[in-house]
């Protein structure tokens, strides 16, 4: 059989590992399945240089601790460039920032089959994303409008605590959130603050711009770190004149966000702390798809506008009802349906209104994006012949 056209193109794998023996073994195993190895890079600086200098990297394998320096700046750069990666490490997930909590982990000592499986999983993750952008608004644009806005978008990392929009200041950037969550923070004249609304992958910042209002009454703060695609305001407004679908979806989201804010006010005024916490956890789950939420008591106190002792009590109630598990810095959602019942009507109307206005659900389960990405790289373990043959 002629296999000339069956053989996939050579795949390029960046290896970041500071142990020379492990790096050499890993490179040898990758070569065995026909991959080209970039590196190995023993430190962050060399890894970033390889990324800058390489015209093609299909996937990366990252050791977490590189002679005392964590690899996360490399992971951030790979994320910006939409290059999939996984961690090959002896560390647990607890050491990684929340933005990488859903990444694949392969435990050391490395098993060849586990590495091959992780490479294949990375491929499937690309294929899953091939249907569209991570941001739901961008994913629903026609191919023509995607091609119009695409060259103007810039990927950025969202850092927890970062202020994207300053209260009463002019908005300069519009952000299409891909991962993570940002909060609209209402601040009174005497400095008191409360979270008024949330934006995640379902939406876009810059509410009011399409009505001609370039100022914001809120601080827009990153609460759960992640990533976004950003565009300057002038380009955004100019492009909405050429992209009616983008304009319509952005306008509809502003309306949906206003509805969410009004129901947050209802929840704060008429529901118990436990019910409000259940609602807030459901809203975060809708925007992350990860049942493990990285939340501190301090943030939940701010989110609900109550004392930390009130948060502690509410967490104990939800945990006692087996709706969640609460561990240091994390809340694990155990029973979503139970949380909906616990929220007692405070959750559901803004979510239904979002779907009515936008034409697709907030959690994106029926979203069918129209953008495409390059074909995912193929990885497979080497084919072995019959016993006794090499």
Overview of this structure, please?
There is one protein chain. By secondary structure, the chain is α/β, with parallel strands linked by helices. It has helices at residues 20-32, 44-53, 72-80, 112-129, 136-139, 143-149, 233-240, 244-270, 273-288, 297-304, 308-320, 336-343, 349-358, and strands at residues 11-16, 35-41, 59-62, 65-66, 69-70, 85-89, 105-107, 154-158, 163-165, 173-187, 193-199, 219-232, 292-293, 324-327, 330-333. The protein has three domains: 11-129, Response regulator (Rossmann fold, 3-Layer(aba) Sandwich), CATH 3.40.50.2300; 132-269 and 364-376, Jelly Rolls (Sandwich); 272-345, Winged helix-like DNA-binding domain superfamily/Winged helix DNA-binding domain (Arc Repressor Mutant, subunit A). The strands form four sheets. It has a five-stranded parallel beta sheet, sandwiched between helices. Strands 8, 9, 10, 11 and 12 form a five-stranded antiparallel beta sheet that branches. Strand 1 (11-16), helix 1 (20-32) and strand 2 (35-41) form a beta-alpha-beta unit. The two termini are 20 Å apart.
